[in-house]
């Protein structure tokens, strides 16, 4: 039976990816990917990274503003939705970007007909997954909110469901179109889409998703007393489109396989992100930790963006140079730090991505304070605590990514579909937990966070 990796392998290699043959014949069949210099890699990563960072900073500032809206004040469980809904960027958008980037490098998008079948099938699959994940995220927020508070009014449940499903559906559609444009544009310009697609997918994804979440939530909140049936109608309409997405996604072999196999990672990742959302909800509710809310999207978004680049690069290298189940000799055991100290196809990119954390977060930290009015600067203790939390988060994620991607490939699972949801969800949980710990330490020493 074919698995999800087969349809993204080079055309000539597919059909005998698990059959032994001469190394020379295999090498002749594989597409040639141009060598990438360190300078070229840094430039291709840096611009999308900065754009993505500005997007997450804007999302943090927006969250700081909308937390005072009626819906956020009255239905605090909506904070649990924030990491889960923003995490769908990793579950869906970045996964789509990684799959299509691999398809471009594997030569699967050279034919116009094959390209559009692959794009339409993946977009339909993404809309289906967004609808289901939006519903599950709202139910998870309901359960966690009920466990924390001991009660959950039904009108709150209905609002959470409508807000989550509507936000996920519209955000997924808009960002899917942007991703396709970025990847096809990268292909025409001769840029490696692995370096730009995932961070560009995230550049304004957080801002778009958070704006939709806040606006949909406030809009539905205005209907809860007079026209509650509007909430149910929206849910029913979007859920009724599910059969259409299933039919369209079934038309292409790759997306057809993912209809059956692509649910485990995104649902598990949503649960992990929701736990991070519960931590955020409790932190925001504590007056001593209220300042955390503007920084949470930044640390979570940047960590997810950087590890997604590395995951996508490792996955592409495995697709092009190894048959499913085969991994390099030095990656057959999962050892910490191996991606940084041992020579390999992507060790240099891991080092570059880690080196980007400190200067990048310094820029974003200063940008936050400038966007908040520019009258104060972040305190030295806040700067050290924030940078330390971010560095620990990214270092941990890069180590996990190297082990996870090779482990998935060894088990004949497509890393493009499995690794990024897990990694971005772990980034949300790690980032929120480390940031909460950092702010708790600042409160204990009496630091206000600004000078």
TrEMBL record:
The chain crosses the membrane at residues 41-63, 128-148, 154-184, 196-220, 226-249, 261-280, 292-309, 352-371, 383-408, 420-443. This is Solute carrier family 41 member. It comes from the Eukaryota. Its main location: membrane. Belongs to the SLC41A transporter family. It is a multi-pass membrane protein. Residues 82-215, 297-437 form the SLC41A/MgtE integral membrane domain. The keyword Repeat applies. It catalyses: Fe(2+)(in) = Fe(2+)(out); Mn(2+)(in) = Mn(2+)(out); Ni(2+)(in) = Ni(2+)(out); Co(2+)(in) = Co(2+)(out). Acts as a magnesium transporter. It holds the Pfam family MgtE. The keyword Signal does not apply. One of its GO terms (biological process) is metal ion transport. It is found in: Cell membrane; Membrane. Keywords: Cell membrane, Ion transport, Magnesium, Membrane, Repeat, Transmembrane, Transmembrane helix, Transport. One of its GO terms (cellular component) is plasma membrane. GO terms for molecular function: inorganic cation transmembrane transporter activity; monoatomic cation transmembrane transporter activity.
């Amino acid at each position: 039976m074919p698995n999800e990796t087969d349809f993204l392998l080079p055309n000539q290699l597919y059909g005998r990816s698990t059959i032994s043959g001469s190394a020379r014949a295999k090498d002749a069949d594989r597409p040639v990917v141009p060598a990438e210099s360190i300078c070229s890699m840094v430039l291709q990563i840096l611009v999308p990274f900065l754009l993505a960072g500005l997007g997450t900073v804007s999302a943090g500032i927006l969250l700081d503003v909308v937390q005072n809206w009626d819906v956020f004040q009255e239905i605090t469980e909506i904070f649990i939705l924030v990491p889960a809904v923003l995490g769908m960027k990793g579950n869906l958008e970045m996964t789509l970007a990684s799959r299509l980037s691999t398809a471009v490098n594997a030569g699967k998008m050279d034919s116009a007909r094959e390209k559009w079948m692959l794009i339409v099938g993946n977009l339909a699959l993404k809309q289906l997954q967004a609808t289901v994940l939006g519903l599950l995220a709202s139910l998870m927020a309901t359960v966690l909110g009920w466990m924390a508070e001991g009660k959950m009014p039904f009108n709150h449940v209905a609002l959470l469901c409508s807000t989550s499903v509507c936000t996920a559906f519209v955000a997924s559609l808009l960002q899917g179109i942007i991703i396709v444009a970025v990847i096809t544009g990268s292909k025409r310009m001769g840029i490696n889409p692995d370096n730009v697609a995932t961070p560009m997918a995230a550049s304004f994804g957080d801002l778009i998703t958070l704006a939709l979440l806040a606006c949909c939530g406030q809009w539905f909140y205005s209907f809860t007393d007079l026209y509650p049936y509007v909430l149910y109608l929206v849910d029913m309409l979007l859920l009724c489109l599910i059969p259409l997405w299933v039919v369209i996604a079934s038309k292409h072999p790759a997306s057809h396989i993912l209809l059956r196999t692509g649910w485990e990672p995104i649902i598990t990742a949503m649960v992990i992100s929701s736990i991070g959302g519960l931590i955020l909800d409790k932190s925001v509710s504590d007056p001593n930790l209220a300042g955390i809310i503007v920084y949470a999207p930044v640390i979570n978004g940047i960590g997810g963006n950087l590890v997604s680049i590395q995951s996508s690069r490792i996955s592409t290298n495995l697709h092009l140079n190894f048959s499913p189940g085969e991994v390099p000799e030095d990656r057959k055991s999962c050892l910490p730090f191996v991606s940084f100290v041992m020579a390999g196809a992507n060790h240099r990119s891991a080092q570059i991505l880690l080196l980007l954390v400190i200067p990048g977060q310094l820029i974003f930290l200063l940008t936050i304070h400038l966007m908040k009015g520019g009258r104060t600067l972040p305190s030295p203790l806040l700067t050290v605590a924030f940078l330390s939390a971010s560095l620990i988060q990214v270092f941990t994620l890069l180590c996990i990514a190297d082990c996870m991607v090779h482990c998935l490939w060894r088990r004949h699972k497509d890393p493009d579909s499995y690794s990024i949801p897990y990694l971005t969800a772990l980034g949300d949980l790690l980032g929120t937990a480390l940031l909460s710990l950092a702010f708790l330490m600042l409160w204990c020493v009496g630091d206000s966070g600004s000078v």
